[in-house]
Amino acid sequence: METVFILTILVVVFALAFDFINGFHDTANAIATSVSTRALKPRVAVLMAAAMNFVGALTFTGVAKTITKDIVDPFALQNGSLIILAALLSAIIWNLVTWYYGIPSSSSHTLIGSIAGAAVASSGFAILNWEGFIKIIQALLISPFLALAVGFLMMSLFKVIFKNGSLYGTNKKFRIFQIGTAALQSFTHGTNDAQKAMGIITMALIAAEWQTNDDIQLWVRIAAATAMGLGTSIGGYKIIKTVGGKIMKIRPINGAAADLSSAMIIFGATTIHLPVSTTHVISSAIMGVGSAQRVKGVKWGVAKKIVLTWIITLPISAVMAGIIFLALNLFF
Question: What pLDDT sits at residue 244?
C-alpha cells in the first residue's frame, strides 16, 4: 500500500507537470498568429491565453473521461500506477525535446502513445480498449485534414467578402478582430488539452482504488487548470516563431481565418468528448488558409518537417514509455 501511495502521488505531480509543460508547449500555437501579426504583444497574448485556458479547462470534462477509460480499462489495470507514471515520464521527455528544438509536436499524440506503450509493455496488446483507442486515433488523424479544409474555405470566404476593401483597412480591422479570435482559440485549447491530465490523474486514482467511478473530481479539475494556466504564463516563444511565421507569412486576415477555423474543429471535438491535437489542428488550419491565399506562399518544407514529427511522435512515445515502464518495474 505504501508503494501504491507513493506512485499515485508521483503520478499526480508528474501529470500536473505535464499540464504545465503543455501550457507553454501547446498554448503557444493558440496565440502564434495574433503575436506574429502584432495584433497582440507577446506578454499580453500569453497572459490572456493563460486566463482563457484556465476558464476553458474548468468548463468541460468529457475529454478527460475519454482519456480515463477509452485507451485502457483503468479498473482492469495491473501495475496501473506504474504504467501511468511511465507514460507521463515519456510524454514529458518528448515534449521537452520538441520544445527545445522549436518543433510543434503533439502533446496529445505523445500522451496517448505513451499510455498505450506502457500498458502493452505491462500486459500485452490485449490490455488495450481497441474500440476506444481506434476512435481516438481516428480523431487525431482526421482533425488536421478537417482543419486544412475549413481553413481553406474560411480564407476563400473572406477573400470574396472583402475583395473590394483596401488591404490596409481590412488588415487593420482584422488585427482588432484577432484579439477576440485569439481569446477564443485559447479557450477551446483549454477545453480539450487541459482535460488530458485530468483523465490521467483520474486513471491513477482508480488504479490505486481511491476512486470507484470515472467522475472527474473538482480538485483534479482545478489543479489541472491551474497548472496549464501557469505553464501558459511562461510562454513558448520558440513554437510561436515556427507556427506564426515559418509556415507562411501571416497577415491579420489570415490569422483570424486560421484562428476561427481551428477553434471550430477543437471545440467540435470537445463537444463529442474526443481528444485532438491542438498543434496539428492549428498548424493545418494555417496551411489551409495559406493554400487559399497562394499555394506557393506556404513554406511546404517546414510543413513537411512538422508533419514528419506528427507521424513519428506516437510510435516513438509508445516505445519510450514501454522501456521506461520496464526500467521502473525493476525498482518497484
Answer: 46
